[in-house]
TrEMBL record:
It comes from Penicillium alfredii. InterPro entries: DUF7779, NB-ARC, P-loop_NTPase. PANTHER family: NB-ARC AND TPR DOMAIN PROTEIN (PTHR35205), ZU5 DOMAIN-CONTAINING PROTEIN (PTHR35205:SF1). Residues 31-169 form the NB-ARC domain. Pfam families: DUF7779 (PF25000), NB-ARC (PF00931). Coiled coil: none annotated. SUPFAM superfamilies: P-loop containing nucleoside triphosphate hydrolases. Residues 268-318 form the DUF7779 domain. This is NB-ARC domain-containing protein.
Amino acid sequence: MANFHPQQPEASRKTVYHIPFTECSRFWGREDIIARIDEALLAESSTKSIRSFALYGMGGVGKTQIALRYASVSREKLDAIFWISAESSVTIGQSFREIAKTLGLIKPDTETDDNAVMLEVKQWLSSTKSRWLLIYDNADDLSAMKYAWPAGSVGSILITSRDSTAAFSLASSGCQVTPFDTDSGSAALLNILGLDMDSTSNQEEAKAITSTLGGLPLALNQIGGFISQRKIPLKNFLGLYNRNSASVDAKSTTSMDYNLTLATVWEMALSKLSGSSKTLHMTLSFLDPDYIHEALLHDGALQVNDASLEFMADEIEYVLLQLIQTYGN
């Protein structure tokens, strides 16, 4: 396996780090949860079996970002860290294939069956002396996870799931991830915005916004980007939000505060998109968010007789959209 030499001294060992996502640059808090994960997965023990820990809670509370953060801070402690998108058997198979390529178990252009690839990776995990961590993100489907669980004695597994029953059916321990309290949420929002955290007025406005958004990290992050991009004074935001909330509520078929909060956040963000960006957004919504190839959009637009998609085939517009995607948040 390229670039992986477990027999090397600790100081010279290079961690195999297969994480297809970038950690939020302004991740905030959650130190207590990170410490609990570390204690459960890496503390010294005489038990010779895989350790597992589950993060469970409703969507938007930051489970995936906590997992990404833990992966980042654990690089110096482990020999290999792998990420598995566990939404379905298809995404699990795709993730195992990427891991197999990273480990050099299959060639990049191989057409080996997903089950065979998964078996290769699981055999490596069960036989290696290297300390590894597998992260199963969005492991809500127990039937999809049935054949994806490895054996071994030197590894650890971290799971994120919205379903507490599924989480504890898989992991030996875990904790519920809840929204930020008012103080933590306001600090997180001010951190996202790069505003003075010691300012009393900033704290009061940020706390009011946090309370309105229910402390949901996902909503706070999206709203932080919206406020920053539109250069909206913090004190003016809630009025704008409440107007959009009333509009969303009038169209909504549910009265759940959680759904209404996120729906309002998305409504505000999407309402500011250009026609081309809205078309792109709608097109992307039909695809797996973790495995969208740029060529699929650019080359595919050349084959479709639809004026609304012509911008995807235009190199200049395409580059601009890439820049928006990269730097827009």
